[in-house]
Design a protein that fits this description.
heterodimer, A: alpha/beta, two-stranded parallel sheet, globular, disordered N terminus, B: 114 residues, mainly alpha, 4 helices, 2% strand, elongated, disordered C terminus
Chain lengths: 243, 114
Amino acid sequence: VGKVANGETGKKSQMIKPDSVWIVVPAYNEQKVIASVVGSLIAARYKVVVVDDCSTDLTRVEVEKTQAHLLSHPINLGQGAALQTGIRYALQQGAAYIVTFDGDGQHLVSEIPKLLGPLIDGKYDVSLGTRFMPGGNATNIPAAKKYLLEIAIVFTRIITRLNVTDTHNGFRAFNALAAQRIEISQNHMAHATQILSEIGRHQLRYTEVPVQIVYTEYSVKKGQKMSGAFNIVWESFMEFLGL
Amino acid sequence: MSTIQILLIGATAFSLVIYQVYFRSLLRDRLIALAFFIVTVFFILVPNATTTIANYLGVGRGADLLIYVSVTAFIFMFILVYSRISKLERAQTELARYIAINNAKKGFNADREC
């Protein structure tokens, strides 16, 4: 496990029925971009569920203008909780494959088939997008953030015992089996580490796929604050203690 | 009785009353609180008793022993409260998730065959 999916998935990916693929988009205060992100997913004929995590802006109104399914948390719970809500809903709706996709426009719709390829081939249960493999890239990562990310990746490898090259980049695909097994109880940002731990715990077959992450001024502003790193370590530690 | 003893006993008695009146806890917990109150009042009235116990345990002064016991109790309470809050958060999350999924809105023509 843990090998790179090579570029031969192009042919197979044409066999994907887009309407068996559910894209779960967690959103919190994304009124400016959410409609265009969802619009491009719908245009590619995927099923889309947006989980609004009790936004204080007009995110819900924007989503209602689209053809996406909308779930609204009555209280703000965090991105991890939003993902779990969306995944459960997608499974109830009969999803065969589930992709998690950020609501701020930093992932590319055109790369979804690349993530799905290894799952449809039946070789893997989970594919994880990575910025740090040949073919992947991360444009405009601020230097300080890059340094912190390297530490975070080492931390993630130790905690999860998975030999991954990236962490916390939100672009992943699961088959239904993996989506059912993985239980995200970390409501906040530690969920990204938890998803990897769950992959290890359930011995799911996973692979990494190089992806492009687009750091726009908007997504950087909306993205994780660096102080979040401390919280992730804390939450993961408490999880480890079983608290 | 010195002033500090009166103040301490007053404060302890006040918290006991608050606990017994406002916290609808189990009889067992109420009895533990009462026992704790009696022990506390005893040590307030007979401060040297703590030193006797401290010496027996190999600690120099009763005041030092009290600090050790307090710190340990604080950590224990922290863990207890933290795990209680985590449990509540999990329940709250499940409830919010249930509400969200049951009120799912299908966007206009969401199920239309394109």
